[in-house]
Amino acid sequence: MHRTTLKILLAALALMVPTAFLTAASAETPHGSRAEVILEKKPSTGQPYYASLDGWWGHEGKSQDTGIGSTYLSLDASDGHGVVSEATIARLHRELGDGGNFDALRVAFVPFSADGSNERPVVHKGENAGEAFRWFADLGFSSALNGNKNKNDSVAVVSTLAEYTQWWRAGRPVQAFTDKLGVLDVASDGHATASATPQGRSLLDRWPAGTKISLVFYVSDGVDKDMPQVPTVKVGKDGRAMTAWMTFETVASPTNPVRTSGGYQVLTGAGTGPKAAAKPRSTATGQDQGGQAGTKPDKTGATTQPGDPGAGSGSDDGGLTGSLPGGRPTFYALLVVLLAGAVSLVTLRLRRAG
After folding, report:
1. Per-residue pLDDT tens for 122-149?
2. Nearest to 262 by CA among 204, 209, 212, 178
3. Hey, which of 58, 153, 190, 337 has its CA 20 to 30 A from 281?
């Protein structure tokens, strides 16, 4: 009986310890990503406090996907405690390797890969976005995805290299969308016909619902010599594209069955939202930019804001671990000590029984 108890205890130990440590690794920036990509529902602030974890591309709002609020493509430019300053932005530029110019950041999409190989592919000098990534779009840092109330609203065009090349060779015809998001060629007199060479597909129906996709910011160093509207991808020192990304799962529209990827559910590396992220503060004074007012200094003379280190920031722990001094490290130490003590007790009882 005692040996059975010991086996059960050891099995529990094997399950509990890895689970505890895996919890600490959740919501990390993807391995290899140079920075943390976030989506915002207001003009890009660089504040993870405003990161949107779910929503509708170009149709943000409270009425499912029938709103017309913009979705902004952004990056966490803060110091981790709610401050965005010239210093934090300079650091972000260094991490990205964009030469101090956010205009060098362009957007691509790839199927999610656990090791980041799709998001950070091996590239060669002069390789364009369509060659390096599965899909690309004419978007960049701080781009606003804007929707409207029209039934043929498409928000943005997302292309493969094959689609874009065929459209280019066809003379780059002006194109529009139908109510079903089919692509039309529009003649100079306004006459429209179904296109045989669509430039791409709408972001709203590019993928089936439930698909894991990574939105990638890549550093560009020029344009393709044959198709000069397509950026080329800068090669990093390791021979890979210089990228930052976030992964999302596509969500079908509840109001329009055609929009199979009209919404997003963020999965990794895209901030934590207002419930956990540091509250935004101004650069010069450190004062709260919104929300509760009248905060009081602590004994050291520093003010504590909701979301500040003294009040629990996005990196703080919640629940039991957050209530312990030292947070998760203390919790893990106590867990190991308690389990080790239990094993020792059972071992002692077995010896006495023998």
Report:
1. 999 999 999 999 999 999 999 999 999 9
2. 204
3. 58
